[in-house]
Structures are given as C-alpha cells and as structure tokens.
Amino acid sequence: MKWGLVFFLAIATAVLVAFAWLQSGGLKQHAMLSAGTPEEAVQALMSQVQAHNFEQAYASLDHSSDTDLASFTRELAGSDGSLRTYSSLQTAEVSPLHSDADQALVRVRLNWSSALGSLDDVRDLHVRRDGSVWRVVWPKPAPSAVPPQVVSVNYLRWEVIGRNTSQNWGAQDVDSPKVRITSMNAISRPGRVVILGEVENEDTVPAYLNVNATLLKADGSPIEEEGSFDLISHVLLPKQVSPYRIDFPGVRMDAVKSVRMDARALLVPASADPVIAVSDQAVSKDGLDRNVLKGSLVNESGRPVNIAQVLAAYYDNSGKVIWVSDGYVDQALMPQVPVPFAVDIPDDIAGRLKNYRVIVNHYSRLSD
Amino acid sequence: MQRTSHINFPLRNRLAGLALLGLLSGWARAAELRVPATVEAGKSFSIAAEGSGQATFYLVGPDHVVKRSVALGSDLVIQSSDVRAAGRYRAILCSSSCTSAGFQVEAAKPAHLSFFLHPSRVPVSTPQSIDATAFVFDQYFNLVLTPAVVDFRITPASGAGFSRQSSARRGVAWMRLDSTPHEGRVQVTAVSDNTEEARVIQQVAAEACGLRMKAIPSGNAVTLETDPVRDCSGNALPDGTVVSFTKVDREGKSTVDTPIKKGIARVEFSLHGPAQIGVACGVVLGNEVALNGKL
Questions:
Q1: Which residues on A lie below 8 Å from B254 (Cβ)?
Q2: Which of A135, A231, B48, B68 is deepest in the core (most CB within 10 A)?
Q3: For B112-204, which CATH superfamily applies?
C-alpha cells in the first residue's frame, strides 16, 4: 500500500511535467532541434513563425541562407503598414517535391488570416541536411527599396468647396460626377447569381462610386439587393473605368427576370497620384495547379502605398466581361520596387477568356 | 392711445388663428367694413371705420395677426409691416357686435430671384443640356404670380454674349440652351426689373477624339507620349484625366493608367522583344504602335 502511493505520486508528477513541457512549446522545439526530415524542418520553422518567435526561427535556418534577421523578420511579419502587419499565420501545409540524401525541395502552402480575409501564399523552399538535422535555406529577399534619391511629384489634386448651408435656397452648388455603367452581364455560378461589368467616370472630376443591383422577379418585385462592396474601385478619376462584381449567394438564375442597376457617385477630394503600373501580366498555373493571373505592381510615385488590391476583369471573344476577380497584396508597395501579385481565375473562365484588364486600388496612411 | 398686439404665426399656430377667425367672423354680422379688394404687399393703407366710441380691431393674415383698440369714426391705418405676407387677409371690427371684410394682399414688384442653373458642369456642344430656372420673389419673399419678364443673359468665356427672354408663369421662368463648342466658364445672369442673380456653369471638354501617341526609344525601354489630348471641338481634356497604356510583349501584358499632366499623358515601358502598344482614354481607343524590339 505504501509503495503504491509512492508509485502513484511519481506517475502523476511525470504526467504533469510532460504536460507543462508540451504547453511551453517543447514539442515544437524538439521537432525543430531534431528535424529528422525536410518536412519536419519546414513545419518547425513555420511553427516558430506562427508563434512570432522570429529570432528562434532565424536561428534554425541553414547558414547558407542569404538573409539577415531584420530582413527575415520584415518579410514574414510585414513592414511599412502593409497588410502582412495586420495578418497572422493560421496554417502551413507542407508537401515534399524532391528529396535526396543532402538536399530537398519542400512546398509549403501558407494561409494567413488578415483584416481583409484569408490570404494564401505558396512557397517552394530548399532544405539542406546539417549533420543529423535538416535546415531550411531561406531565399534572398527581394530588394525592398531603391537607392536614396529625390522623386519629383507634381501632384494633381481635386478639392471640393461645397455650398454654404446658410445660403439661400437656389444658391449655386456643384453637381455630383456623372458616371455610366458601360457593360453589365448576369451569370450563374454554383450556388449564386453574379452581376458583373464595368463602369466609367464620364466626368472631369473624381467620383466616389457605388454600384448596386436589384434582382427582380417576373412580377417586378425585388428578390434581393446587393452592392459591389470591395469588388470595385470606389474612387474613379476622370475617364477611368473600373470593373465591378456583385454576388447574390443562394439565388438561382431561373428565378430572376430582370436586374435593376444603380450607380451612385459622390464628388470627393482626390489625388491623381500615385500611379501604379501593372507589369508582366500573364495567365499561368500556380504551384497548386490553379489558374492565376500573375504580374507585378510598380508604385511609380515617391512614397509607399501600404495596402494594394488588384482587380481584374476578364473578357471573352466578343469583348464581354465574363468574370471579375480580386486579390490583396500583403506587401507594401515601396517606390519603384516591383511587387508580385496573383489572382485566381476559375477553371471554366480560364478556358474562355480572350483578354483581361487589371486595375489597382490602393490605400496609403499618409495620403488623402 | 391705441394698444396694438401682434401675434406672429408659426406654422403650427395657424390652426389657432383660423379658429379665432371663425369665432370672430361668426359675430361679424351687424356692421360693414369697407376694405380695398387687393393691396400690394408691404404698403400701408387705411380702412374706414364708421360709428363712434371704442372698438377692437383684428387683422388676421396668413402668417400674422394684429389686435388693436381703435376709436370709431376715423380711418384705421394698416401699417406696412402688417401686410408683408401675400395671401388672403380678414379685417374684423368688434364693438357691441362684430363686422368683418376680406381682402387680398398680392406680391409687390420683383425684388429677389432664386436662380437654379443645372448642371454645374456640362460637356461642350451638347444640345439642350443647360437648364436655367428662376423663381421671382418680391422684397418680402412672396412669389410674384403676376407675369414678369426674366431676361437670361449668357456670357461665355470667349465669344459674344447673348440673352433670351422668358415670361414668368405663376412665378417661374425657365429656358434650356445648348452648350457652346468651347470649354470654359459661362456666366448666366437672370435679370428681372432691378434685380439680378448670376450663376456660373463650367463647360468642359467632351470625350477624347483622335487620340494618338508616339514612341520615343531610350535604350531597352520606350517612352510613350500622347499628342495633346483633345476632344472633337479641339478643347484640351483637363489634367488628371486618366489615359490607359497597354503593352504586350513576350513577358506578358503591362498596363499603366496615368493621368494627363500639362495636356499630355506619358509613360515608360521596358521592352522584352517585339511589342504591341495601345492607348485608350475612357471608352475611346487611340492608335496602336508596333515595336520590333530593336530600338
């Protein structure tokens, strides 16, 4: 009986110690230190990133990695008010691509949760054997800034002086901008109806724009009303054209007789800068064999753009808009530095698309 | 000495005024008041009150009531301030019994114009695109319902001005006109009697016309520059108007939406082999340039 109690206490203590070890991340650390396979090495690295232990993650990299701690942290934690700074790593799915005795190539699919939804990032990482463990070779980061220089920017800005509300009835005021929906297409997608097209600011002043659509039954009564939310460029400069997409989840196309469109514009102060070039656009497959439209964004102004959103319109042979997709870029656009982007294209759309057009929405903390 | 009380009618108290009018009119059977049929707003006038002794006089108007003790046998002077609002008035005189009479106060001569000019911006050479509407008021802001002539004087930024007359019906005069072929500020002034009100409309360039660009090679890049971007009437599109350049070469497609600055739009592309470059402004397409990649 006496020995039974001692035995019980010893077992209980061991269980509690093991529990505390697990709680303190001992398993991850063990996995990282042991890293007996390339996949374990990548998984352990991503666990450290997920826990924001960037120093430990950096320490676990292979010595041939061409990066420093600051660059590594900036790349994974974000900087300059980019969307990555408002994100956290949710999951990292690891799959081996190639392996031999001393080197391996491992694909990792990272899913980041951000203030603007989840963001996917697929990377192929080289892993090298270092004695009994494997270590990730972190690639050299892309240059994040151009050499010091002066960029001259002659700002084009519009300011609005509204009517004084104390003035008499009939006093002079400025009208809202004139906008026009240049195309509209209603399509049926699995589980939803989608209204998409393009809208142009026909005026000579900037417009803050919202496009709404109401689906109508045969008797003219409304089924549902929705707005384009973030699938549009809300601020349109004079003669600028933006695609829009409005989703109606849970609505079937055969229930819809007609659609009522409504484009509302407000006159707002705006700036014509920054100009963001979209270069090297091409439709291709990503690492997960999905159809994507890839390219690079180049901020041609002199100050950073914190968050950028890519909006792409796809056209068929007849020039009709058949799909609109978007994607947020989680890096800040530093002046003159190309930043890659990729937006998904559904498989059936990719087979029919003949042409496409990309525009960029942007947000800068220091701008208007 | 006369004691006068004025009661201004806020809208919500008008019902109370009407009730008072009804009550006093019910008594008003014994004598007669001789009042003019119509009176001009803001002009004082007299009402003959026959008899002798003291009486109480009431004047009930659309937004105003006056109560006053008066001596019968002399004229009752109605102050100009008591008949500023146009509309139907009733004068009531009560001594041993009450008598009443109604009269109409009509708007005085035009003194104010409320002038609406729409839109505030209009593309050039657009027919029937400008609406001008003037509401004619007297100095007390009564709508002048009698026919009044309103002269619309149009002064473009360039060229001779002209005018059009319109007769106000029920206090409103209006006209429509075409925008002229030249951009710039157009002043429209509505004039009636000695009053005038000016508004400004901005005539702006219409859609781009004959959009053309030229390619200026520089190393392995090319600078694309439009000719001055103008509409079909020759007006320059304003700075800030977006022009889209699209280049397709072996690296894929590149696009830049750039604003016009100082009348032209300019952009630089790097080249990777033969390239096809196009330009557009809104829904207007410009010329295309083919480059063989050997600059």
A1: 277-281, 295
A2: A135
A3: Macroglobulin (MG2) domain (2.60.40.1930)
